[in-house]
Amino acid sequence: MANWPFTQGVHDLGNGLYGYVQPDGTWGWSNAGLVSSRGETLLVDTLMSVPLTRTMLEDFARVDGGAKIDKVVNTHANPDHFFGNGVVEDAEIIATAKTAEEMSGFDPKGLANLSANYEKMGEAGEFLFETMGRKFDFSGVDELTLPSRTFSDRLTLQVGDKTVELVDLGPAHTASDTIAWVPGDSVVFTGDLLFNEGHPVLWAGPMSRWIAACRYIEDLKPETVVPGHGPICEVDAVRNMRHYFEHLMQEARGRFEAGMPWREAARDIPMKEYAHWTDPERIVANVYSLYKEWDPDLEAAPPPVIFAEMNRYRKEPAHEGCGHAH
Ligand SMILES: [Zn+2]
Description:
CATH class of the largest domain: Alpha Beta
Radius of gyration: 19 Å
Number of strands: 12
Strand content: 15-25%
Number of helices: 10
CATH superfamily of the largest domain: Ribonuclease Z/Hydroxyacylglutathione hydrolase-like
Bound molecules: zinc ion
Distance between the termini: 25 Å
CATH architecture of the largest domain: 4-Layer Sandwich
């Protein structure tokens, strides 16, 4: 498993391609990318906040061609991949129609207002505030900057003399999850279809769809993979993510058939080689989503309920599967 050094900032992938990495890769600390060729640029995702996105653009401005951003693609509709869009509002901002629709449903002040409101929001509020609200400066996100160009399924872009293929492999992590594949350089920007050594979180699913997305990326045989979170890596990290899902499905299925409730199953499944991955509380969301798929009559647990459940999980001393206190 060859991870690149997990250091903050620009990583030169060679030949006009760059990754931008934010340790420690947990909630909200996302990665981005830049494709630069013959004076044209494509930015893959903005960051959680305006100040973080500004700093990233200053860093990119020091690399060849990085001083101006012509196009932006938002891989999916999570704030840590598009709340910084206002900084590049003069660029053409591209996303799938589904992602654009999901983005428009976010309250631009929702995270900023958490510091004032989270105590009224119970455990979900506490979780969002602890994991994201208190860590980021949301000033400058007064309204959402949404895509100016949408597509469905796939779109081929020309950036200078480079071909970039945008392919929607969702719904999986969200309703629509786009990768940016640069075949000429064998580099893929996966968005959050890959959390490298972090637990993924399944908001949309089904999980089988995410497994298929992993297989699609593996079949591209990329030399370099820029994940949505975690260090830049090789394709074996995508394979690991697929194995994690396959492990989870198998372990959850046995417990589902034995009648074990989903909350208990989430705490009982052995995490084995994944035990050191970050954000272990996401197992709660992932097991719930499997149970709901297998039993549509299962109680509804919308995101606020899942956030509250993850909050509880984080506060517990240690879990069977996890094997260490956190
Ligand atoms: Zn993310």
